[in-house]
């Protein structure tokens, strides 16, 4: 058979073969899938057993030289290292892997990721990503509508996650405050003296990226004013009002959290939005975790008031079941994203854009940017809002079940009723120090390869210690029996450490 560009399928593709042809990809994908299956079977649990140093030594022994003089061939390299990665991974699809906001990805999203990777569009100019550029516009419009923004006025971009989205929100807030106070454009003229008086207000339970991003933006971490939380770990509006009234400086931004990392708490958004309006502060809502509740008719009401935000961060690699990365930044008004605008002759010349060849370069902090939007688009189309809502509700049900089991167990203590899908608790030893026992039992489970349980610490002088355990339940196909088995493993490990 002949034809332009035709390549005969090969059992062993050349290591330098390109991904454009399905015939070349197929044997490699089959080899990778077989190695994945083998590695997972060898692991036999949610995480490899043994000490961290043992796994590091296995990696070194398997890899040999990271950059050898000659290669081993495509299939051999792929099989060997895929098997190693599968064996040495914490598997979020295992019901006993429940420590972090690290979801098991949907199969359809993983397949979409493969297709996007093979085509390799880059979203810094239209001529590198014609369909993906238009697709991102449409997905952003749909998600803007989900949070209650007017899709015709809003704008946004797919990001690598909540930290980047939070950085963008604070950057736009900083520039808006400087322009308002001085008439200067900090994107062109740099930060004036007033920048040292800019203040960001966030709850004590807000994500650490708020402080980190304040440092990156030249404001300093001390520009972030921590606001006390109430008994439900939500920002206290009365405390926020006092801080705004007495804090001095310029109220640049308020960062409200919709879904704190530990307790899943959602700050009272309507009250915070009212204070932001009264004080002229930009309102950014970090909904990286809790934004997934908007898919659920049962839980969406938790985020009432989010539409009043100036900007919102979402992460669909949490309650959206996407492979990392799948963050989204949304601005209520497209004009607010002007500080990001850039004109580059070789990427987005004005005459090209006037002719309809639009570019997304001016919406992102990055230049080369992969088409993460594709897997999101495929997932939204495959499941719809109702299908994703059912997955959110399934995880919420598991969290409620876990809380009930913990509350009924004599050796376990529940820290708070679950809001979303996280459950914070601790083991109550009979004699040992609670902090030591809870920290050690978690490591015991890791060494045994039995479970991956989260750890956090409560602020203040907590009776009997501060260390707590955490289940982050993001597997919608896990069962109540799986949760019961996980809690039984915690109790057994706690009893061993308590001896």
Overall description:
The chain is α/β, with parallel strands linked by helices and 499 residues long. Helices cover 42% and strands 12% of the residues. It contains 14 helices and twelve strands. It has helices at 22-43, 52-63, 74-87, 107-119, 130-147, 162-182, 186-189, 209-216, 237-246, 269-279, 350-354, 373-408, 434-448, 480-498; strands spanning 97-98, 155-159, 198-203, 224-227, 250-257, 282-287, 311-315, 327-331, 412-414, 422-427, 452-457, 467-472. The strands form two sheets. It has a seven-stranded mixed sheet with strand order 2-8-7-6-5-3-4, sandwiched between helices. It has a five-stranded mixed sheet with strand order 1-11-12-10-9. Helix 5 runs parallel beside helix 12 and helix 12 (373-408) crosses helix 14 (480-498). It is globular, with a radius of gyration of 25 Å.
Question: Descriptors for this entry?
Answer:
499 residues, alpha/beta, 7-stranded mixed sheet, 5-stranded mixed sheet, 14 helices, 12 strands, 42% helix, globular, disordered N terminus
How is the topology of this model organized?
Blueprint: H1 22-43, H2 52-63, H3 74-87, E1 97-98, H4 107-119, H5 130-147, E2 155-159, H6 162-182, H7 186-189, E3 198-203, H8 209-216, E4 224-227, H9 237-246, E5 250-257, H10 269-279, E6 282-287, E7 311-315, E8 327-331, H11 350-354, H12 373-408, E9 412-414, E10 422-427, H13 434-448, E11 452-457, E12 467-472, H14 480-498
Parallel strand pairs: 1-11, 3-4, 3-5, 5-6, 6-7
Antiparallel strand pairs: 2-8, 7-8, 9-10, 10-12, 11-12
Characterize the biggest β-sheet.
7 strands, mixed
Q: Which secondary-structure class do the elements indicate?
A: alpha/beta
How many strand units? Answer: 12
Strand fraction equals: 5-15%
Uncertain residue segments? 1-10
Q: Write down the overall geometry.
A: globular
Whole-number radius of gyration?
A: 25 Å
| Count of runs of 4 or more consecutive helical residues | 14
Question: Could you tell me how far the N terminus lies from the C terminus, measured between alpha carbons in angstroms?
Answer: 73 Å
Strands side by side in the biggest sheet: 2-8-7-6-5-3-4
Average residue-wise pLDDT: 94
Helix content: 40-55%
What is the element string, with H for helices and E for strands? HHHEHHEHHEHEHEHEEEHHEEHEEH
